[in-house]
Each structure stands twice: as C-alpha cells, then as structure tokens.
C-alpha cells in the first residue's frame, strides 16, 4: 500500500524494473571462468545482486585483493560479451507513466555504477521518467541508507513521504535503515521467503500492481 502522504517512490533497477538477473549471473560466471577464478553458483550470484560491484567481489571472490581486472572483464561481458536478454519487465513503462501522471516524484537507487545506470536509462528510454537517480559509486553500498538519505534530501521529502520498491533484502533493509516503507517484488533476484524477512508493506507479483495501490 502506498500511503496517502507518499510523494517519492524509489525503485531499484536490476530485478525490479529490468529483467537482468539472468544476464548478471551469466556474465559473472563467464568472468570467473575467463579469469580462472572459482565459478560462483547461480544462487551465489543472485544473492549479491543489488550490492556495489566492490562488495560483490568481496563476497564472491574473497581471495582477490585487486578488483580492477575483474571489473574490466565483467563490464565487457555484461555490456558486450553476454547476449542473455535483459528487457524491461512487462508493464514497467506504463506503470512509471501512470505514477508520474499522479504527481509522484520517481527515483532510482541502484547497485550499478553511474556510467552503467546512465547507459541502461538511455537504452531503455526511461531517463526522462525519473526526477533523480543515484548509483553505487555515489554513496555507500546497499543496505547502508546513504542512497536514500541523499534522495530524500534532494527531493526535500521526509522518510514517511517515501517508499522503496525492490527485489532484494538489500533494498528493503536499506529502506528500514532510512526509516521509509518498502514494497518487495516476487520476480527478481531474491526469493519471496527472503523478502518476507524484511517485513515489507506488500509484495507484488507484477509491477503494474503499483498502479492500483
């Protein structure tokens, strides 16, 4: 439920607006293969989606100290090398247009770096939908609340005037730490059981459900 006083809706990107979980998993596994690193399982990669890349590496490849060479390979695989489809979830654009027409401020808080976020915003045609966006290299990684604190300050919103929509516990823990409500989605990286541990206000099975809240 979106509270009556809500004015700011913050969306995660991967697994919430874009169906990119499969591509992230494939690109990370290929990166590990090519660099002769231990190949993480599908569940291991799904479990870190939403974190900054640096935090992902600490969790997936704890034996590696220098991450620059991993980043170079992973970004190549994700952007060019891997051809796993990563479309917007069906109904994303119409839902954002509807919320925008109702007067809500819309934002993105993502584990992507700024150049990666700008690339997908431009490619998807959604750049103009959002009043403000923040990337993982502009604040501390989720679930730290700094991203949301900055979005609240930028939009001059109070915590009880905002809500976070995301597919991972990192999104919802971040919301809890910032004192704002959270809505989980069932179609992203983390399971519904995982999302329920964060006590979201609701869990939706289709992004278009936000239009009727």
Characterize the structure shown.
The chain is of the alpha/beta class. The protein folds into 2 domains: 8-19 and 87-212, Rossmann fold (3-Layer(aba) Sandwich), CATH 3.40.50; 21-81, DNA polymerase, domain 1, CATH 1.10.150. The protein has 9 helices and 6 strands. A 6-stranded parallel sheet has the order 3-2-1-4-5-6, sandwiched between helices. Helix 8 links the parallel strand 4 (162-166) and strand 5. Helix 1 (21-34) packs across helix 4. It is globular and about 50 Å long. Pfam families: HAD_2 (PF13419). It comes from Kangiella koreensis (strain DSM 16069 / JCM 12317 / KCTC 12182 / SW-125). This is HAD-superfamily hydrolase, subfamily IA, variant 3.
Q: What's the CATH architecture name of the largest domain? A: 3-Layer(aba) Sandwich
**Given this structure, which CATH class of the largest domain is correct?**
Alpha Beta
CATH fold call of the largest domain: Rossmann fold
* Global morphology: globular
CATH homologous superfamily designation of the largest domain: HAD superfamily/HAD-like
Rg estimate, integer Å = 16 Å
Total strands: the figure is 6
Residue ranges: pLDDT <50 for 5 or more in a row? Answer: none
- What fraction strand? 5-15%
The level of helicity is 40-55%
How many structural units, i.e. domains? 2
User: Can you count the helices?
Assistant: 9
The pLDDT mean sits at 96
| Spatial strand sequence of the major β-sheet | 3-2-1-4-5-6
Largest sheet at a glance?
6 strands, parallel
